[in-house]
Design brief:
This protein is of the alpha/beta class. It is built from 13 helices and 9 strands. An 8-stranded parallel barrel has the order 1-2-3-4-5-6-7-9, surrounded by 8 helices. Helix 3 links the parallel strand 3 and strand 4. Helix 1 packs parallel to helix 13 and helix 12 crosses helix 13.
């Protein structure tokens, strides 16, 4: 099984944003050494506790300090941007880091309504135009993709020898359909979805339409995971991210709380119920338990690859989690 890393660059309560971004680089470097296939960093805008608003800045920084791991955005929130500029940026990266650049394409705002309005005009109208935006972007990345748009004769220079690999990211039938119709690999955010995820992935597989020779459907599943030496330790480490999620719903939680701070947080009755549900959605445990859970998910969702999102207060706990999983699942590959 191929395993990869999704990083939201979380800021812990004892960190600055610079600290969090430094830890993102370290995570990518460790991931490369451990045998993970790719490292993607997410795009968020004005969301407390998340440090990366510009993956197009972090990706080349990480690329310059790693050698072979694939790197990319999870995702570029395309309705905010002109496809031509996105293609220029990622073609530039692919020129600098040949054979390593992924371009995840998403449609969410990535922040509050106010941040969305500050970042772009007519966001909702652009969301409705998503199929057209994707068509334009794919043509700018690869002249072989058919297009009817008005900019078909211009080039998003520089054109790299090895093109960026586009992916559609999402959690809905619309994203599954968009990926299938364009013959693209599909990254499904299981950690964000409350829909019938199996049905959506099956929809993608059934509707997949190759646009070029040799294209086959490819499913990447993104899941939240906390792994530790023991089940008890994993439960303890996981409490930070779980309580942080509850705090953010109340407009609190500017940063990821420590384990001690999470234990001191007083839950009301409704939060107790939410916490129980959240614990069920989070994969956590010792290496053997995590492996069993991931293998079950791979089989259930027909996934070619699993991308792991791990949020902890301590950077050491996060690295340990990825290390234990790699030793359990990648050491024999």
């Amino acid at each position: 099984m191929k395993l990869s890393i999704l990083d939201q660059s979380p800021i812990a309560s004892n960190q600055t944003a610079k600290d969090a971004l430094d830890e993102s680089l370290k995570l990518a470097q460790f991931g490369e050494a451990l045998g993970y296939t790719r490292y993607w960093i997410a795009e968020h805008h004005d969301l407390p506790g998340l440090a990366c608003s510009a993956p197009e800045v972090m990706i080349p920084y990480i690329g310059a300090h790693t050698k072979k791991i694939r790197i990319g955005a999870g995702a570029v929130l395309l309705p905010h941007y002109k496809p031509y500029k996105v293609a220029e940026v990622y073609n530039m990266m692919a020129t600098l880091f040949p054979g390593r650049i992924d371009l995840g394409i998403g449609r969410s705002p990535g922040g509050s309504a106010e941040a969305t309005n500050a970042l772009s005009d007519n966001f909702l109208q652009q969301v409705f135009k998503m199929p057209q935006l994707v068509e334009e972007l794919l043509h700018f990345l690869d002249d072989d993709y058919p297009t009817t748009h008005e900019f078909s004769k211009i080039t998003a220079s520089p054109m790299p020898k090895v093109k960026p690999m586009p992916w559609i990211l999402g959690t809905s039938s619309k994203s599954a359909q968009l990926a299938a119709q364009n013959g693209l690999p599909y990254a499904f955010g299981l950690f964000m979805s409350e829909e019938d995820s199996v049905a959506m992935i099956n929809q993608y597989l059934d509707a997949f339409l190759p646009k070029k020779h040799g294209q086959v459907p490819e499913v990447l599943l993104t899941v939240p995971v906390i792994c530790a030496q023991t089940t008890e330790k994993a439960e303890e480490v996981a409490l930070s991210s779980l309580i942080w999620s509850l705090q953010k719903e109340k407009g609190l939680g500017q940063t990821v709380p420590s384990i001690e701070e999470a234990k001191e947080y007083e839950l009301n009755e409704k939060e107790h119920e939410k916490l129980t549900v959240m614990k069920q959605r989070l994969i956590k445990g010792n290496p053997q338990e995590v492996r069993e859970s991931l293998e079950q998910l791979q089989k259930k969702y027909k996934a070619d690859e699993i991308m792991i999102l791990t949020i902890t207060h301590s950077p050491e706990d996060r690295i340990t989690s990825y290390k234990l999983i790699a030793e359990e699942m990648l050491s024999s590959n």
